[in-house]
Specification:
By secondary structure, this protein is an alpha+beta fold. The chain contains nine helices and 17 strands. Bound molecules: adenosine-5'-diphosphate and magnesium ion. Adenosine-5'-diphosphate binds next to helix 1 and helix 2.
């Protein structure tokens, strides 16, 4: 089995969104090709994330929910080249303290038998029992923040906004994770189950976007496959299709159409090497180019920045992944030129 490493860090579970993000990232780290997220009452009652990943090995049952215990071997000095999302061993331990946490898990050789794990709020393992389970892991979080009345009230008060934010995060993971099938549902207070969206695995990004945002969205989108040569960008040039590209911005953006009502949802998703990131400066370029066409709304953007890992620094905070690109100014200018060219081309 893999060893448990101890790593120092801060609080990762600050709101509903960070709970779901941490659980989904654990499923992705476990190599899942299917992830189901089930909310009850928008997450107020419970959040369940079920995957078909490699499961938890018996020798790690005692430690999975202890603070700073992680089975993920990674180089903490170089966050940009991390192979896994998790590296701090904090999410499950925080969730033990902040909710009722229960885990069902089975490794391939154990299925169709699995184990149910119950924890103390300290993260210590309280009890295990044998259950029926397919290969994979289901993490159930009930009564989030119930033991912290002020935070619970805040969650209840802001639940609509929080839930919308969570769905936004799930949309981004679902569209970028081509090899993973996502299913997201919500059980309303009266017991009615609502399917929010479902994607398939091994389909194109376009098909996932259609499944998440509706097929109508597709007809309004232009594909982006912008490649930049850093020498070029430093000289404030952009040459489409130039050889030896070092940076790419790949994805889909809505075509600016003057005088037309909104055809696409008001969503902008940015990724660096397929990891969801907050990139306000990039968003600004898209919005400004769009505005230059006298279109009042902001565009739908799904943009993955493909770039060498030594060309940026990562700052991973609980609710976002912020990236500092070393050549950002030059790159943004080239992106602006490339977008204008892309849209001009579309007009013909
Ligand atoms: P981290 O992801 O930083 O390692 P977490 O607290 O999120 O820390 O998870 C602790 C450990 O629990 C992980 O290192 C992993 O071994 C195990 N684990 C959590 N979720 C899953 C999952 N869905 N499938 C398999 N193992 C999991
Ligand atoms: Mg984790």
């Amino acid at each position: 089995g893999r060893s448990i490493h101890q790593i120092q860090s801060g609080q990762v579970v600050i709101d509903l969104c960070s709970v779901v993000k941490e659980l989904v990232e654990n499923s992705l780290d476990a190599g899942a090709t299917s992830i189901e997220v089930r909310f009850k009452a928008n997450g107020l009652d419970s959040i369940e994330v079920q995957d078909n990943g490699h499961g938890i090995s018996k020798e790690n049952y005692d430690t999975v929910a202890l603070k700073h215990c992680t089975s993920k071997l990674s180089n903490y000095d170089d966050l940009s080249s991390l192979q896994t999302f998790g590296f701090r061993g904090e999410a499950l331990s925080s969730l033990c303290a902040l909710s009722n946490l229960q885990i069902l898990t089975a490794q391939a050789h154990e299925a169709p038998k699995g184990t149910r794990l119950d924890f103390e709020s300290s993260g210590e393992l309280k009890a295990t029992s044998v259950i029926a389970s397919q290969k994979g892991t289901t993490v159930m979080v009930e009564a989030l923040f119930a033991n912290l009345p002020v935070r619970r009230q805040e969650l209840e008060r802001n639940i609509k906004r929080e839930y919308t934010k969570v769905l936004g995060v799930l949309q981004a993971y679902a569209c970028i994770s081509a090899s993973v099938k996502f299913a997201v549902s919500n059980i309303l207070a009266k017991g009615k189950k609502v399917v929010i969206f479902a994607t398939k695995s091994n389909v194109s990004t376009r098909e996932s976007i259609a499944n998440v945002f509706g097929a109508k969205t597709l007809s309004a989108l232009v594909s982006m496959d912008l490649r930049f040569d850093l020498q070029d960008t430093r000289n404030k040039k952009y040459t489409a299709g130039k050889g030896d590209p070092q940076v790419g911005v790949v994805g889909h953006v809505s075509r600016p159409v003057v005088g037309e009502g909104r055809q696409t949802p008001d969503r902008q998703m940015f990724f660096v090497n397929a990891r969801p990131c907050t990139l306000p400066q990039f968003a600004k370029v898209f919005n400004e180019v769009y505005k230059s066409y006298n279109v009042s709304q902001s565009p739908f953007v799904f943009a993955n920045i493909i770039i060498d890992t030594d060309a940026y620094d990562v700052n991973v905070s609980p609710d976002k992944r912020t990236i500092l690109l070393h050549e950002q100014t030059a790159l943004l200018e080239s992106l602006r030129m490339a977008l204008v060219e892309l849209f001009e081309h579309q007009d013909q």
